[in-house]
Design goal:
This protein is of the alpha+beta class and 312 residues long. It is built from 7 helices and 16 strands. It has 2 domains: 113 residues, Rossmann fold, CATH 3.40.50; 171 residues, D-amino Acid Aminotransferase, Chain A, domain 1 (2-Layer Sandwich), CATH 3.30.470.20. It is globular and about 65 Å long.
């Protein structure tokens, strides 16, 4: 039985997982859906006498028997591609059919997923994740999602210190015309800095929590691993992603109430893995700020998004 690793061609995390599986003598098959259709051929059948899909996928060098897949590690694989001979509306149709066909066959695999993309998609929606976390007993910051500049200003004025954290709702970094990814960092925003540009799309504002340190909490099945992240630079104290060189790390214990809430949260979403981000305030209370059912793709460290809510 084989572990299927769905990932893009260059991914250091997937490389480490595959190396560990190889060391343990566990059969592993690495596959990127982006190889379809040029370098990946599929053929699978189902019928009245068979309740699961039989057949497989043939790549350039290897064949994967769908019936031999015991588990799937889903690590941000590439999107299926369209053959260069297809363009326009035909290309859009072909891409949609490819996602439904190849993606559907993979999604139909009856095995353990880490995690199933359907579960990732639900847990990755920030309003859903925050509401579910609150119902699980986890502390979350006071949060406003709005496209109303007046509501945003009033919300910030009523917060302690009259300052909010502006954080993007989306999971994908926007790109410029050359395809270079940008980062939209968390920023401090005051009411006077809100412009009418907020009306152009949804924006998320959260209570600014003066923190003692950050926590990255990783859950794999029933195991929980937590690390304190101390940041020495001002930029990293606002958003730890801006200056990794300023960090020091320290393993730490997880309060029982937090661990119980996290386990309940993952159970509701049907997740076997998640990386969660917490802020710990000066009184020691843990505040959940992000649920990451799959780790995010790295972004260019020096880039900044041009459409900040202050300027519209």
């Amino acid at each position: 039985m084989t572990v299927l690793v769905l990932t893009r061609p260059r991914d250091s995390t997937a490389d480490l997982v595959i190396a560990e599986l190889n060391d343990r003598g566990i059969p592993v098959h690495r596959l990127d859906p982006g190889e379809f259709p040029d370098n990946l051929v599929m053929a699978a059948r189902i019928g009245p006498q068979k309740s699961v899909w039989g057949g497989g996928l043939r790549g350039e060098h290897r064949y994967l028997d769908l019936g031999q897949v015991r588990s799937v590690y889903y690590r941000r694989p590439s999107e299926v591609r369209v053959h260069s001979d297809v363009s326009g509306q035909d290309a859009q149709w072909a891409a949609a059919e490819a996602r439904a066909g190849l993606g559907g066959l993979l999604a139909a695999l009856e095995c353990t997923w880490l995690n199933h993309p359907r579960m990732n998609a639900t847990a990755g929606v920030k309003p859903v994740a925050l509401a579910t976390a609150a119902r699980c007993g986890l502390s979350i910051p006071e949060t406003l999602i709005t496209n109303n500049p007046g509501e945003a200003r009033a919300f910030i004025e009523n917060l302690p210190g009259h300052v909010a954290a502006y954080k993007a709702l989306g999971t994908e970094a926007p790109s410029d015309i050359d395809g270079e990814p940008y980062a939209l960092w968390t920023t401090q925003v005051r009411a006077s800095e809100i412009t009418d540009g907020v009306s152009l799309t949804a924006h998320q504002f959260q209570e600014w929590i003066p923190k003692a340190y950050d926590i990255r909490l990783t859950v794999v099945a029933d195991q929980i691993f937590a690390t304190k992240i101390h940041s020495s630079s001002e930029a990293a104290r606002i958003d730890i992603r801006t200056d990794y060189d300023s960090h020091t790390y320290e393993p730490c214990d997880v309060p029982h109430s937090v661990a119980a809430g996290v386990r309940k949260l993952l159970d509701i979403f049907g997740l076997h893995y998640a990386a969660l981000d917490f802020l710990v305030d000066r009184s020691g209370e843990w505040h959940l700020i992000d649920v990451n059912p799959e780790r995010t793709v790295g972004v260019h460290p020096g880039a900044a998004h041009p459409h900040h809510p202050r300027t519209g």
